[in-house]
Amino acid sequence: MKNLAFIILCIAMASNVLAQEKIKKEPDVFMIVEDMPKYPGGEEALRDDIAKLVKYPAEAKEKGLQGKVYITFIVNEQGKIEQSKVARGIDPLLDKEALRVLNELDKTWQAGKQKGKAVKVSYTVPINFALDGGPKTPAPVKHPTGKGENELFFIVEDMPEFPGGDKALREYIANSVKYPEEAVKNKIEGKVFVTFVVEKDGSVGETKIARGVAPSLDKEALRVIQALPKWQSGKQRGEAVRVCYTVPINFALN
Fold this sequence. Notes:
Elements: E1 4-9, H1 16-22, E2 29-30, H2 42-53, H3 58-63, E3 67-75, E4 81-88, H4 92-104, E5 112-114, E6 117-131, E7 144-145, E8 152-153, H5 166-176, H6 181-185, E9 190-198, E10 204-211, H7 215-226, E11 234-236, E12 239-251
Parallel strand pairs: 2-6, 8-12
Antiparallel strand pairs: 1-6, 3-4, 3-6, 5-6, 7-8, 9-10, 9-12, 11-12
């Protein structure tokens, strides 16, 4: 792979919004659950396994084809992958290779759970194909809502990033959360999923509860997200854009 600069997997919670459009709608398929599916060894292991399996198509190299291919699939109750398909492609050569790689992952995931029960969960994985010398193909088709300056994207070439990365975001949230006394008294626990917009300047815009637990916990989760410092804004074709993002906040009593 002399000409291959890198093949990187980036997993973003917001990508599950795209999955909602691309996977056949079934009443028993969830987009967001209390305990999301986990690959054995975590995201780093998933990156490594995909990198080992990918074989950059020779014809794609010759044509200078590169970019991110988004694969959507379902992690079923047994932790197996099913219904994998290209949610957003670049070229048939790269799309086919990305799909092959996902289908050849033979490890069993930790199934997603809702209220303690294993359920089917839709998941989207972006695989980036890049050659030395930088991009030579058009950027992936954008997936916005709205028009003009208010266009809202769910997946972009450069996703928004919290200062210091995901670990710093988790630490910030953990240090900011104040467990509501009412929830403590009533022994209320669970994960609250908050969806928000990272604006063009990196500030946090509109926030809402994607999946709540109880009014007191939902309110606290919203407060924490609304107080987040500025992010590194998301970009599409090198231009800052508004991006929808979702994070889970786990409330657990000792």
